[in-house]
Amino acid sequence: MKREGNLQLWSFRQVINQIDNDIIDLIEARFALMPDLWKFKKENNLPLEHKERELEIYEKYKKLASEKWIDAKVLVKIFFNIIEESKKIQGDNM
């Protein structure tokens, strides 16, 4: 690969690395809310899981995926994992 190609590849990778770091920061911020969310649910006698809410979220993200030209299955899979981990964090605080 020519030097120009290497520089362009490096440039793409730098942007991707920054986006990945931003995603990680946002996931960390989301997970940081979980102990307080669980406390709120506990104080208000709310269940850990709310399946209707989860289904609403998945439908919302399927719609957003189609608007953003993202594979809906991929986006739902990502958020499924995030939601499952969020519930685990809340459950760990029980």
What count of structural domains? 1
CATH superfamily: Chorismate mutase
Outline the low-pLDDT stretches: none
Mean pLDDT: 92
How many E-type strands?
Answer: 0
- Which second-level CATH architecture applies? Up-down Bundle
- The radius of gyration is 18 Å
Largest sheet: none
The count of helical stretches stands at 4
Order of helices and strands: HHHH
Quote the beta fraction.
under 5%
The secondary structure category is mainly alpha
CATH topology: Chorismate Mutase Domain, subunit A
Shape assignment: elongated
For the record, give the distance between the C-alpha atoms at the N and C termini, rounded to a whole number. 55 Å
Share of helix, binned: over 70%
CATH classification, class level: Mainly Alpha
Structure, described:
The protein has 94 residues and is an all-alpha fold. The protein has one domain (3-92): Up-down Bundle (Chorismate Mutase Domain, subunit A), CATH 1.20.59.10. Helix content is 84%, strand content 0%. The longest helix has 30 residues, at 3-32. The relative contact order is 0.11. The model has no long low-confidence stretch (mean pLDDT 92).
